[in-house]
Recover the amino acids of this structure.
């Protein structure tokens, strides 16, 4: 008998025990790694939000808000910030942390989003869609995002966009770039841009050779073993990572895609 994975219970239990960056990420990595890797993503997302947010500020939505990392970025722009998460624990904590913003407990792959048609300027989803392992729920989510976005507004999300076959791991599915292109077109989106989020700071799921996987394995293994190395390596690599993500055109690791809602 196959037991269906209960994502709501899984994330709620996990965040009850660890409401922090490790709780929403890979528990095998260190907190110092997350502190510096999130600095990289913060730098990348802030530039993209500045680029794609209209000058006349309205409302935005972050999907899978977790501990509020993306909310922290959005609230710098003077917009009405909304967020939702599948975990009741996350929603409660987010509402306490950001009392001026609105948060909802929603399973976005099966429940309607509580927003009117054409009401949001940008929707963001950071490190989320690879947790949607089936294609039908992904279509439902994309259709929902398309419905609530204003015409020609943007959906900004991150994934690995691999160039080989789909990569399936426990409760995750890394889709190919081709699969995303088809799914986005099917659900009313046009891809505008794809930029690097990480090069060295993330699992190189799209690497062609062994170089990047070996570097990633070495960095993470030693940083877990020796605290002094963990304390030094990530801040030292931080400026290098910012340089690499600005010059490399195809990353072996996670990237950020910007899509326009066609209406």
């Amino acid at each position: 008998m196959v037991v269906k994975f209960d994502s709501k219970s899984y994330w709620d239990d996990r965040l009850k025990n660890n409401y922090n960056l490790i709780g929403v990420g890979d528990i095998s990595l260190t907190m110092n790694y997350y502190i510096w890797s999130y600095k990289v993503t913060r730098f990348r997302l802030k530039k993209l939000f500045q680029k794609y947010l209209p000058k006349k500020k309205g409302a935005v939505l972050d999907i899978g808000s977790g501990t509020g990392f993306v909310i922290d970025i959005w609230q710098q722009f003077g917009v009405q910030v909304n967020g939702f998460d599948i975990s009741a624990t996350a929603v409660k904590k987010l509402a306490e942390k950001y009392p001026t913003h609105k948060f909802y407990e929603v399973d976005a792959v099966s429940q309607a989003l509580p927003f009117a048609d054409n009401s949001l300027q940008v929707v963001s989803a950071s490190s989320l869609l690879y947790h949607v392992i089936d294609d039908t729920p992904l279509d439902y989510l994309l259709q929902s995002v398309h419905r609530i976005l204003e015409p020609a507004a943007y959906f900004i999300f991150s994934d690995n966009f691999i160039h080989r076959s789909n990569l399936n791991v426990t409760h995750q599915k890394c889709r190919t770039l081709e699969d995303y292109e088809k799914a986005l077109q099917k659900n009313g989106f046009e891809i505008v841009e794809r930029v690097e989020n990480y090069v060295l700071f993330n699992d190189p799921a799209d690497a062609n050779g062994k170089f990047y996987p070996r570097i990633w394995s070495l960095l993470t293994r030693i940083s877990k073993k020796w605290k002094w190395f963990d304390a030094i390596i990530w801040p030292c690599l931080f400026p290098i990572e910012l340089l690499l993500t600005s010059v490399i055109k195809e990353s072996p690791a996670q990237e950020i895609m910007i899509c326009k809602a066609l209406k």
